[in-house]
Amino acid sequence: GQQVMQIPQYQHVQEGEDFTTYCNSSTTLSNIQWYKQRPGGHPVFLIQLVKSGEVKKQKRLTFQFGEAKKNSSLHITATQTTDVGTYFCAGPGGGYQKVTFGTGTKLQVIP
Amino acid sequence: EPEVTQTPSHQVTQMGQEVILRCVPISNHLYFYWYRQILGQKVEFLVSFYNNEISEKSEIFDDQFSVERPDGSNFTLKIRSTKLEDSAMYFCASSGRGWINTEAFFGQGTRLTVV
Asked: B106 and A43: CB-CB below 8 Å?
């Protein structure tokens, strides 16, 4: 079945440093979404990418969808303590209404 | 802002008992989902539901599980004969146009502990 892997699994950064998480799917995706889950919280939608090579920015966050639509990345510039949490990519999981989450990258920001 | 509501927030049950987890999706949404997350692990798809029937289900969603939309607002997940390995956070989500096309909104989750 489809697998969606993310690296790294964990990342500790000093506040102010940049952070990147990479998402790789075993199959081509029609679109990809990114979610953030704060510690003890629930996944919250960040963004959806649809087009090959698409790049979208939200303030300090930059999202990219690969040309082959099998990978994606999330880059955070100058991390803040509010960025702490687990970042998940999610994509259509081979079914009509099945969305598969990636393995997640847990970000810890050291003040 | 509309939100997905789940009750209870925490449920402790004896192994072998049945539990019902409840969700109230966003009122004009049509697509509903259950996911689970074992502590510290990834968010796993269980089932999607549209037009009063299951659209998709995972290998995890076997005969032990069932979903129902008993009225116009609630969406429930029933787990029969609970096992220790069913302990997890269960998230309900809903979407207006289908998650393939747009975002899903998650509830706060129900933490199920089977003892």
From this structure: yes
Question: Which of B50, B99, B105 is the closest to A99 by Cβ?
Answer: B99
Tell me the per-residue pLDDT of A43-102, one tens digit each, with 9 for 90 and over.
Answer: 999 999 999 999 999 999 999 999 999 999 999 999 999 999 999 999 987 666 788 999
Size of interface A-B (CB pairs under 8 A): 60
- Which pLDDT tens digit goes with each residue over B86-106? 999 999 999 988 766 778 999
Contact assignment for B42 to A104 by CB distance below 8 Å = yes
Q: Distance between CA A39 and CA A54 in Å, rounded?
A: 29
Closest to A34 (Cα-Cα) out of A87, A71, A82: A87
Comparing alpha-carbon positions, the chain A residue that sits nearest to B59 is A1
